[in-house]
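Protocol step 4 of 5: obtain the predicted structure for the target chain.
Materials: sequence only (see below). No template structures provided, no constraints applied. The aim of this step is simply to have a reference model before the mutagenesis design in step 5. Sequence pasted as it appears in the construct record:
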Amino acid sequence: MAAAIILAAGRGERLRPLTDTVPKPLLMAGGRALIEWQVERLVRAGFTDLVVNHAHLGAMIEAALGDGSRFGARIRYSPESPALETAGGIAQALTLMDGAPFVVVSGDIHTDFDYAALHARIASIAFDPGSCVAHWVLVDNPAYHPRGDEMGVESGRIVRDGPRLTYGNIAVFHPSIFREIAPGTVRKLFPWAYRFADEGRVTGEHYRGPWDNVGTAEQLEALDKRISK
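Step 4 output (structure tokens):
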């Protein structure tokens, strides 16, 4: 089974007080929880072996998603206390993975990105991890992040100079790069992972379709109105 990690351990500080009693990935938009949109789209794309990490109110996420059978998936959980940030959370979850390259997505984004297209990226990384250890999906810089991140895409590779784009919280990784991070370590993905791009070992693409990273109550309300139509 193709595998994916859904990151769901964020506290959602900017969404308080909503996230005081509900974990951010369970906030509703378009009649369902943000993380349910992700689960359903991953399963539709053939990713049925899912690992969800969680920290704040994580028991609510497990109760909402269960074992994944109602989605046609197998869902297992990687609890964190405290939250370990993105790279630390992935490293912790590796004990539940089978050693093959895997997809990573955030549980609080909403997008029409075609996850099925990542199967070819997984196969390429598995075939030659010496040349490529990751694939990152970048998006146009949103209004709240106008300068973008310290990367862009050129000729299908992530580059660190030139026009900047924003990391879209969608990626494929080879598990080997996380083995240097001891389980339980708090580690952000960036700037730690930039070195793999600097080595020329990260492919990338610029996705220009619908994509929302819900960070505020206003953004959640706008997304809800748009997709409820």
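Step 4 remarks: The mean pLDDT is 93. The first strand starts at residue 2 and ends at 8.
Proceed to step 5.
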